[in-house]
Amino acid sequence: MSVKEKLLEFMYEKAYSPMLEEELMNIFDISKKEKEDFSNLLDDMVKEGVVIRTRKKRYGATERMGLIIGRLQVHQRGYGFIISDRPEIEDAFVPANFMNGAMNNDRVIARVSEVNSETKKSEGEIIRILERANKEIVGIYEDSRNFGFVVPDDPRINSDIFIPKSEMNNAKEGYKVVCEITKWPESRRNPEGRIVEVIGHKDDVGTDILSIMKKYKLTPDFSQNIKAEVNKISNEVEEEEKLNRVDLRDIPMVTIDGADAKDLDDAISLERLSNGNYKLGVHIADVTHYVREGMALDKEAIERGTSVYLVDRVIPMLPPELSNGICSLNPQVDRLTLSIFMEIDNNGKVVDHKIVEGLININERMVYEDVSDVLEKDDKDLKEKYSNLVSMFKMMKDLCLILRKRRENRGAIDFDFPEAKVILDENGKPVDIKKYDRRIANRIIEEFMLVCNETVAENFYWQNTPFVYRVHEDPSLEKLEDFNKFIHNFGYHLKGLNSEVHPKALQELLEKISGTKEERVINTLMLRSLKKARYAGENLGHFGLAAQYYCHFTSPIRRYPDLQIHRIIKESINGKLNNKRLQQLSSIVPNTAEQSSDRERVADEAERETVDLKKSEYMTERIGEVYEGIVSGVTSFGMFVELDNTIEGLVRLSSLVDDYYIYDSENHILMGERTKKQYRMGDIVNIKVSRVDIAKREIDFVLSEQ
Fold first, then answer.
1. C-alpha angle 110-115-116 in degrees, rounded to nearest 5
2. Which pLDDT does position 119 carry in this prediction?
3. CA 303 – CA 639 distance, rounded (Å)
């Protein structure tokens, strides 16, 4: 344990009260020679925000002194929440007038003043900004005679940026720009900036997606030194390397992916053993053979953290020459893998497994639709085309159902949210929006990847090796109690709320509501009551999957945690995990986990924003049209209605003209004062599209009955 970690552990002890530097030096037995280093360490910890120095020059852990440190998430209405660095500490609410110049995503320290009796949330005031997140802002430039200003695209940045005449850089009215902040906001003063890039007119084709990419700093291009490294990598497997591998080329295997996927990182093989058990092989692209620790490629990959799948393009974690080329498990060519073979009994239990560095040659590149049509529709043409594989597909289905039943029995929660697929024409214009089908082939791959990820995580947990886990902590009892109150309105309740809630209680509820009109709404609120899954250097279990051990092993082309653990696994297989390397990994792993979690959050936001943009664009041509939808949210300012194609719009309270409606926050209901007419989540309503604001991604509906 480092001196820093020991210091923090000491300061978090209950008996600790803030101490002077000299007192800490005595306790930690710091010599005069080490005094300067120790002072610098304390200064660094103060700058980082984990330690506070009081006016009397005493040091204490920030969150033991009525303060909270974390990332600020601002709502477009001006208030915000601080998401603490320490997962066990609840978020703190920050009213708009206590922001004190902080902006969305800044890392801040706040003084926690009180617990609000209504919201039951800690309330705080920001007292210090540790790190600014928004050094550059993307927005629309608006011109004035003597100055200009930029209206940010991000509604969570509540103030326009003032641009002096000398810093306009030829920007014109109505153009999307990138502006660099030169003066940060203060409580009563807007930020100032200068234009560093003009993207294009806001109505030009392509400017919209480009602006989102700039906003999230997503770069499709790779630097020259990375291209130079890629050029040295052969686009075929070297003959010499083939000799170091377990040759698996005689085993029949396939990839099953979406029709438009180009980065294929997992292949499947399956056979029945003489003892009646299944032998499942999951073969994952051996990206670490090409992307070595310390290479510019590796540094760029961790910087990106993940591939980002925008509505019209992919921003890859690795250059396409690797992600779509030598690393991708394309058919009928030799490829290197990290392969895991699992022996699974007829109850779905993994009774044995082995991980090897493999050499494979895929028989067929299958797509979800074709495999599903063979298994669900008994498609004769496809059965004839893939006659040599049909029996394996049927076996895959059998094993998938066994694995799924085992997961259900232990209580895994399976949210079946429909995802939107946006169909664009050649100009990027949305022509259709429909739900992704989650058919049997999708479920086969899901189950096989889940069992593989669990097996790998459990193996390395018991090896006591530094590892990157995928964790999902237990939900807070308070949030579940609020959720339980809500579902009570529909006649449901959660079992076992007095003690720790087991995921099985939530799974049983999902089974009860399946097929009901309130299913989507309860699903959504249940998801909001749970914590967000993240990466961690310690195994904390996965509540949603009801799994004790879980990691991400199966997508090293597009996720950095998978790449990192492949490295650890290969070093373990080859006996290279000596004490020095284990110590090194102990410091690498937590940083990988934190960076990967951050980058995943950015990718999710960017992906969601491009989808919302195209949904808004799609609805601009449907103003006046009538649709049936379900009430998906009720608020003090109206109700949200979701259509069958996953598009959501707002019916504003002001548009309900047949009565004066009052919001009942406890029961999530809008009730007419005179008529007692109610609108609640889960109600089916007919709406008419009344207004669309593409820039704000807002869609307004009115009830067509009115």
1. 115
2. 55
3. 40
Does a structural domain hold residue 458?
yes
Q: What is the pLDDT of residue 120?
A: 59
Are 161 and 172 within 8 A, CB to CB?
no
Q: Report the amino acid identity of residue 556.
A: P
Structure tokens of 659? 């009565």
Q: What is the pLDDT of residues 209-227, one digit of tens each?
A: 999 999 999 999 999 999 9
Euclidean distance between CA atoms 264 and 267, whole angstroms: 8
> Do residues 515 and 589 share a domain?
no
CATH code, domain with 663: 2.40.50.140
Domain boundary among 148, 170, 204: 204
Q: What is the DSSP string of 447-494?
A: HHHHHHHHHHHHHHHHTT----EEEBPPPPHHHHHHHHHHHHTTT---
Q: Which two tokens stand for residue 283?
A: 């073969």
Please list, in sequence order, all residues whose beta carbon lies within 8 angstroms of the beta carbon of residue 137, skipping any fewer than 6 positions away: 150, 152, 154, 157, 161, 178, 179, 181, 193
The pLDDT value recorded for residue 498 is 67
Quote the distance between the C-alpha of residue 201 and its chain's center: 31
Which pLDDT tens digit goes with each residue over 78-128? 899 998 877 677 788 899 888 888 999 999 998 887 665 555 567 888 988
Nearest-5° angle of CA 86, CA 88, CA 93?
80
Question: Which one of 482, 500, 530 terminates a domain?
Answer: 530
Q: Is residue 640 part of a domain?
A: yes
Q: Please give the backbone phi and psi of residue 667, each rounded to the nearest 5 degrees, phi first.
A: -105, 5
DSSP string, 138-180: EEEEEE-SSEEEEEESSTTS-SPEEEEGGG-TT--TTEEEEEE
Same domain, 412 and 489: no
Confidence check: pLDDT of 295 > 90: yes
**Two tokens at 612?**
């919302």
- 3 state DSSP class of 95: coil
Spatial separation of the C-alpha atoms in residues 396 and 374, rounded to whole Å: 12
Single out the residue of 255, 250, 265, 236 nearest to residue 337, CA to CA.
265
Write out the two tokens for 413: 């929660």
Contact criterion met (CB below 8 Å) for 502 and 475: no
Please give the single-letter amino acid code of residue 236. E
Residue with structure tokens 């449907």? Answer: 622
- Highest mean pLDDT range out of 213-217, 517-521, 527-531? 213-217
Q: Which two tokens stand for residue 128?
A: 């210090």
- CATH number for the domain spanning 162: value is 2.40.50.700
C-beta atoms surrounding 682 within 10 Å: 19
Q: Are residues 462 and 327 in the same domain?
A: yes
Give the burial class of 496: count Cβ atoms within 10 A of its Cβ; 0-12 exposed, 13-18 middle, 19 or more buried.
exposed
Burial class (CB in 10 A: 0-12, 13-18, 19+), 633: middle
Q: At what angle do helices 503-513 and 519-529 cross, to 10 degrees?
A: 160
pLDDT digits (tens, 9 = 90+) for 134-166: 899 999 999 988 899 999 998 889 889 999 999
Cα 395 to Cα 390: distance, rounded to the nearest angstrom: 9
User: In the block, which residue shows the tokens 């214009």?
Assistant: 429
Asked if residue 15 and residue 54 are part of one domain, the reply reads: yes
- Residue 214 falls within a domain, yes or no? no
